[in-house]
Amino acid sequence: MTHPDHSALWPSLALESWKDTYATLHMWTQIVGKVRMALTPPVNHWWNVPLYVSSRGLTTSTIPYRTSPFEIWFDFIEHQLVLQLSSGSRKTFPLTPRSVADFYQEFRDMLRSSGIEVKIWHMPVEVPNPIPFDEDRVHASYDPAAVSKFWRILLSVQCVFDAFRSLYVGKCSPVHFFWGSFDLAVTRFSGRSAPPRSGADRITQEAYSHEVSSVGWWPGSGQIAGPAFYSYMAPEPEGFRNARVRPATAHYDAQLGEFIVMYEDVRTSATPSAALLDFCQSSYEAGANLANWDRGALERHSKGTLRSKSA
Q1: Bridge partners of 29?
Q2: From CA 303, how far away is CA 281, in angstroms rounded?
Q3: Cis omega before residue 128 (within 30°)?
Q4: Which secondary structure element, helix H or strand E, spans residue 156, and what is its range?
Q5: Separation of alpha carbons 99 and 80, rounded Å
C-alpha cells in the first residue's frame, strides 16, 4: 500500500475511472495544441508542438503573434481555459462537461474576439476513428477530481524527469506533453544520425532523424490497460529487449517495442520518485551501452550528482 505521504503526490488513477473524461480532454488539448503548432516557428523534432506542465495545469508557453504574443493554459485548479495576451487582456471559460464541438466553437470565438486569426486542421490525430472537432458530440465528459489527479501525477513525473534530464550534458529535449499521443516524455540524443525509416511519414522521419533514448508516462490506452511508464531506444540496439531493467516489475513489451512499468507499481513502492528514476536510468544505460553511446562525454559526472545504482 502507498505510504500516506505519497498519496497526494502520486494519486491512484485507474483508466476505467475516468476514460470518458480522458477521451474528451485529449480532444480539447489537441485543439489548443494545434494553435501553438500553427503559430510557432518550427523546431527540430517537432519541439514547437507540445504543451508543458505548469503549476496550474498545462500551458502552450508564449506563442508569438503580431504585436501581442499570447499564452493559453488549462487551469486544473480553477478548472478553466485561460487566454492571456501580452497586452494585459485575459479571457476565460469554464472547463465543464461539454462536447468537443461546443468547446471548439467557444475556443474559436475566444480567439477571434481577442483579434487572433489562425487556421487549424479540424481533424484529431493519433486516435482511432477520428471525428472532426466541429462535429464531435460523442466526447462530452469532464470530471474535475479525476483531471486534478491526472495533473498532480504529471507534476510528480515532471519533477523526476527534470532530475533525470539534469544528469545529461548531451542534447536532450525539454520535458514535453505531446497532445497527439497524450503523454509526457523526455528524450536524450546520442548526437549521431539514425538510418532513415523506410516508409515513414515526414513527421516520423523528423522525430527519429537521430538516435534517441526516450522515457515517458501516459494514462493508458490500447493494450496497456492502465497508466504506465515506458522507455525505448530508436533505433533499438540488438539485445536491448533482453536487458535487465529496474524495478523488478518492469518488462519489455514486444508489441510496443518498449520497456514498461505500470504506474501503480511505482506509485505503491516505498519511494516512487526513486523507483521511477531507477527505471529511467537503468533502461537508458542498458540501451546506451548496447548502442555504444559515448557516455563519458554525454553524462554529468560531478560529485554528489544523483545517479542510478548501476552508473
Answers
A1: none
A2: 17
A3: no
A4: helix 144-166
A5: 15
